[in-house]
Amino acid sequence: MRTHIKAQCAALTVFAFATISTQAAETLSVVTFGGAYEAAAKKAWFEPFTQATGVNFSTESYDGGLAKLSAMEQAKNTTWDLIDLETNDAITACDEGLLQKFDKKTLGKTSDFIPGSISDCAVASMVWSTVYAYDASKLKTAPTTVNDFFDLQKFPGKRGLRKSPKVSMEWALIADGVDPKDVYKVLGTPAGVDRAFKKLDTIKKNIVWWESGAQAPQLLADGAVVMVQAYNGRIDDAAKKDNKPFKAVWDAQVYDFEWWAIPTGAKHADTAAKFIVSQAQPKASAELSKYIAYAPPRKDAVALVDKQRLADMPTAPDNFKRAVQINANFWADNADQINKRFQVWLTQ
């Protein structure tokens, strides 16, 4: 899973930024997942930090994974200062020495953070979710469950899926009758993996694959698919800002943290660390939700989120009934093996 309002700058600069405000024209090179999330991050975090410190941001988009980061480290030529990571990649990158250790003491009262949102090498920036969405203007009957996503008789048409086994494997098992709370117990067995692929086989000919998060709502807008797996914030952004008649289905949503981390060998590591601390403060943490429907990773920030906005968050009670938290350790341990099988499956 990758600017904002002058009046809020003071809230972001409570801690000592004087040391960086004197550094002329310093630029942080940041890699994010792009699209609506990056636009929101610019408004909520990048621009206020620039206004407070004079530090600029140069952004680059990617689709996740560690290949480029690993290549930079091997070449001893790291050009990124800050990287936006999904949880399993944050774990793997830290284990492989691709990320610098983060000084947790700089965050202050860490008990205010949701458990599991601070690691040795990274700090969670928000809570996001993978859901599926449909165009309400084109379906007479609204789908309500993950089973409906796999039901081509009840809901004929193409399905959009991220070109990755992650989440799709979980959904396949749940649609095949596995209780959400048991999904990783089943997926952790060879028979469970076989079962997930067998369920995906039932819709394989109707799948349209996407790789960039921005592609998901576009597939729906273009009428290329009837339903699409998507990041919840991208669907909310299309509905709220572009007035698209898109509706999210929260059943079996798979939620996760997004993480900021500093690559080993980053040229502006100290400034990147100060930025991470700045966006982790309660007001800044809550600020992102004004621009995209992702929830803050700290408990004391939730009270600062607009009440009308809370219903759009992955953590809203009505959205959370059958939610699945991504098992990052499972994917960190099994991603290579399952990805290899997934690539073979794609060609069959």
From TrEMBL:
Which organism is the protein's source?
Caballeronia temeraria
Q: Does the keyword tRNA processing apply?
A: no
Q: What is this protein called?
A: Extracellular solute-binding protein
Matches recorded under InterPro entries:
SBP
Where does the record locate the signal sequence feature?
A: 1-24
Show the SUPFAM superfamilies listed in the entry.
Periplasmic binding protein-like II (SSF53850)
Q: What keywords were assigned to this record?
A: Signal
Transmembrane feature ranges: none
| KW Signal (keyword) present | yes
**Which Pfam family, just one, is annotated for this protein?**
SBP_bac_8
